Amino acid sequence: MAPPAMQSPAELGGASAGRPHLMFIPSAGMGHLLPFFRVIGALASRDDIDISVVTVLPTVSAAETEHFAGLFEAYPHVRRVDFHLLPFDASEFPGADPFLLRWEALRRSAHLFGPLIAGASPRVSAVVTDITLSSHVIPIAKELSVQCHVLFVSCATMLSLCAYVPVHLDSKAAAGEEVGPGVGDVEIPDVGRIPERCLPQPLLDLNKLFTKQFIDNGREIVHADSFLLNTFDALEPVALAALRDGKVVPGFPPVYAIGPFNAHTSTAAAKQPPAAGSPEAWLDGQPEKSVVYVAFGNRNAVSREQLREIGAGLEASGHRFLWVLKTTTVDRDDKAELEDVLGEGFLERVRGRGLVTKAWVDQEALLKHQSVGMFLSHSGWNSVTEAAAAGVPLLAWPRGGDHRVNATVVVSGGVGVWMEHWSWDGEDELVTGEEIGDKVKEVMSDEAVRARAARTGEEAAKAVAEGGTSYRNLQEFVGKLKAT
């Protein structure tokens, strides 16, 4: 295999003397990449850091390809490092999620990061890697005497779970307790109990590929130099304090809560008027706080039966709605027509008060639109923090992964409400349109929920403003880089 290609300093104007060179090593999936793009954008806007970004090829989804292109277009001084994966036989894991397969392929190619980091010019001062790669990248960085920081793309509560699960399993084994088939309920010191039903589904089987990755990463992350989190102190005070005080794992690395992350691309800064027929243009014609925004993330496919029940619920609620719908895990595979998915006549019946689209949208901008009054969401962490920043109440309907853990923060942090009994991926029960419609009406009319969400939005704005907790934490992190 040809070595990964890095654009030379001469091609990109070189690095200023004395600036730390920070290399980002992201993973796959827009839920993981968006936080990286936003942190890169925030740091690339400064003049005191030199940045390179490892771009893993081929990308899994079209959205990944487009967002990488947008990043380098917006920040031409950021170095692009193309990293081609070694051949990988996916048949070893039949039926596995495409993104989990990508993470495994990355892990199997991770030894190539050593020469890449060592051969970079200017010398790499520090790397920032994704949690999914940390068990491989941290040892490589340590061997090269390079700082290694982890950009954790979920909540602080989830980080505490990731750090504590290996301790939890070791403690059970040492006590002679039976371990398996899954992790079981986890009592995290000074954070609280996370019942098994709220854990990412693969953790119910210790032999799953994801579970092995999760445990390996959990064991290694204690050796990281620090963690960057897309959260803020007022949103998760308990979990952040437990991590920082060494209550979860003694001697845990520094944790910098620097969120909520915002888009920093030039396209966001120079916003053009919305195109006719676009979701933004449609929102412009709706009354203030009147629209229910519905989206379940970029890789969470909902069954056809459940999609029709959601449609029935939105129709029965009587409220205006904007629904970003997807039917497949990978966007390139999504070929279904809306009429076939939602049933004959649905789009005609809701014409004028409902808009359904399968296009990629700028969710951050939509949530900040004055017409949006509620967000029906899978409670992926990017969605939670975007709702928190916008002060929009979130109705959490977890679909899988870390979503139920995130939903606990939705409630405790004042972002919104959580329907704990609604089913998620792998469960057969359908949530009826009648129940969905009733809950949408209830949340849309709940002034107390709206007020709590608005206060959370105010706290989010304070955190990232000059002098706020997230602002100071980012300054402290940059100071640590400069001291390298």
UniProtKB/TrEMBL annotation:
Pfam families: UDPGT. It comes from the Eukaryota. Keywords: Glycosyltransferase, Transferase. Transmembrane segments: none annotated. InterPro entries: UDP-glycosyltransf_plant, UDP_glucos_trans. CDD domains: GT1_Gtf-like (cd03784). GO terms for molecular function: UDP-glucosyltransferase activity. Belongs to the UDP-glycosyltransferase family. This is Glycosyltransferase. It comes from Urochloa decumbens.
